[in-house]
Specification:
By secondary structure, the chain is of the alpha/beta class. The protein is about 30% helix and about 25% strand. A hairpin with a 4-residue loop joins strand 6 and strand 7.
Length: about 160
């Protein structure tokens, strides 16, 4: 059932664990539902209703739990997605944002309240450039964005 993985993110949903897992699997490559476990007799939910869903996104394993409404998601934790191209940023942004809310600097909350950061790979190198002026221009440009735009970030990086 579980892949040999040292750390597995465990996501607590109210009742949408299977729906959310299927949504995520439909978006990312190399993704699949691995296992669905249901509540048995005497559980806090009806027998046969979904307890957990083990799923993989891009080969990374996750578990989604239908645990009830006590613990909603917050931005205190997010899923960071490195994107090779602007086209990948655009596609993931559009699909994950469906029914969700855009936020600043490449962050969004999906329809289930899970926070995601959709980020072009090149941004890390730009922000860690030893030239503080270059890194500062990129930071300034990024802080004005909702969805990240690699061309605008690259232009800020190259300017000067």
């Amino acid at each position: 059932m579980f892949a040999k993985q040292k750390i597995t993110p465990y996501l607590w949903f109210d009742t949408q664990a299977e729906e959310a897992a299927r949504f995520y699997v439909s978006i990312f490559k190399d993704s699949r539902i691995v296992n669905i476990a249901t509540y048995g007799e005497g559980g806090p939910r009806p027998k046969g209703s979904v307890l957990t869903v083990v799923f993989q996104l891009e080969g990374q394993q996750f578990v989604a739990l239908n645990g009830g409404p006590q613990f909603p998601f917050t931005e205190a934790i997010s899923l960071f997605v490195n994107c090779e191209t602007q086209a990948e940023v655009d596609s993931l942004w559009e699909r994950l944002l469906d029914g969700g809310q855009p936020q600043m600097c490449g962050w969004l909350k999906d329809r289930y309240g899970v926070s995601w950061q959709i980020v072009p790979d090149a941004l890390g190198g730009m922000l860690s450039d030893p030239d503080p002026a270059r890194a500062g221009r990129v930071t300034e440009a990024m802080l004005k964005m909702v969805k990240l735009d690699l061309a605008v970030l690259q232009e800020a990086y190259d300017r000067g």
